[in-house]
């Protein structure tokens, strides 16, 4: 073990010495060149199944080839992924109280969900179930004793702070939440966001509502079977839903913000919803490149570096702009994939294990491309780690790096050492209630037992970087202004790329593969 630590420390020092000669400004411009193409209006937001996405995939495959990566998909550099695209024709929602009904405005007040399996009409009672969570490990069950058979369950997002953030995040995922609700007899769900945790203002969310929804065409990989209704409700208007219940959204939010138990109650009346949809098959693809390891015993173990290639496409115009370019989300991460692969190639870097570069489709549709790759990898062997880059947000100089999953596996020690050598301080997730660790492609690998990390540029609470970071979410996240006109620190992005490159090399050369820490909740997914 001592020899391993010494070897890894020597590697870190050698990598740092090599990086000191890097012209970060020039490296940043090379990174930005890829972002500039992928997030250009020409690609029209890279929506799954669109010509713009296909152009982006061809670009990435070409860049992977130039960077010396071997084609590692099931079809050259590509892994085909099939989707069912469902478009909304019409929808309506009413609250029914006896012989009177109140029409609810969509999308101004409610964002109603829809899928290829949505029934044309549903009428059902509604029950408010606190956070709507069932977490056996924390002896927490919001559903116990409630009349849920045939009901739609309304809940406040978030959860008690006393429950570990990653444990709570796992059970807050759509898959796990619906599994519990369906087992309790529910037919649908309504989420109400706590305004303290809303990343996008309601009015701006409404601009993208109604875009086509997508699911994997393989029904065995769909978790929403049996869901007849889903919606999110504007918290500012949630009292319309609570009418005549004797409770208010103010009461619920006050209890949540004080970390007191939330009320649980049946809501008088019913909801009545109608929806008309049309569906069709859509073809898309993951892009997969491979840098083969040089150790005969270890080359069939793989370190995956991932980022998602898709974004939202086109939507309702905002000040005349209808293209959701997705520069930070996530052309930035795909550009980093390319530049890291290029740096390894140009540096003639050899690693014991192989490194797989995957630009996945369908992240914005529910992490569907990564779910496909994690379930059906196109490389033969064992995936030992995933390092995922999803809008790491190089909006200011890189002094701190927030690492999601920092304390869950031995990868936390690896990234801490590599970042320290680069003069960067590592931070844990500062906002666990936002559930970011389960909201991007690393989670597809985690559920297959693979230790994983995700990254954001960090900040000190109360500092100027925090304001820049949070303003970006409020004004640009999933908006048309996440484009090529926004201010970006290109040199800092290049420094981040170097850290990720060195982390991948370190993990690929380690004597032992990464492992979950004994206390990690995610250890349960371990397969070997």
Q: Treating each run of at least 4 consecutive H or I residues as one helix, how many helices?
A: 14
CATH domain class of the largest domain: Alpha Beta
General shape: globular
Number of strands: 20
* Secondary structure: helix percent: 25-40%
Question: Average pLDDT, to the nearest integer?
Answer: 93
CATH superfamily label of the largest domain: Zn peptidases
CATH topology of the largest domain: Aminopeptidase
How many discrete domains?
Answer: 2
Radius of gyration: 23 Å
Q: Examine the secondary-structure arrangement and name the CATH architecture of the largest domain.
A: 3-Layer(aba) Sandwich
Helix/strand/pairing category: alpha/beta
Q: Point out poorly predicted stretches.
A: 1-8
Strand content: 25-35%
Distance from N terminus to C terminus (CA atoms, Å) equals 21 Å
| Biggest pleated-sheet summary | 16 strands, mixed
Structure characteristics:
Aminopeptidase; Glucose Oxidase, domain 1; 528 residues; 14 helices; two-stranded antiparallel sheet; 16-stranded mixed β-sheet; 31% helix; alpha/beta; 2 domains
What does this structure look like?
The structure is a single chain. By secondary structure, the chain is an alpha/beta fold. It has two domains: 2-68 and 292-525, Aminopeptidase (3-Layer(aba) Sandwich); 86-279, Glucose Oxidase, domain 1. The protein contains 14 helices and 20 strands. The protein has helices at 2-19, 24-38, 51-66, 165-172, 174-183, 202-208, 238-242, 249-257, 327-346, 368-375, 411-421, 442-446, 464-475, 490-509, and strands at residues 70-71, 78-97, 100-104, 110-112, 121-129, 134-135, 140-141, 152-156, 188-192, 213-216, 229-233, 264-291, 301-308, 313-318, 321-324, 354-360, 382-388, 400-404, 425-427, 452-457. The strands form three sheets. The chain has a 16-stranded mixed sheet that branches. A two-stranded antiparallel sheet has the order 6-7. A two-stranded antiparallel ribbon has the order 14-15. α2 (24-38) crosses α9 (327-346). Residues 1-8 have low confidence and may be disordered.
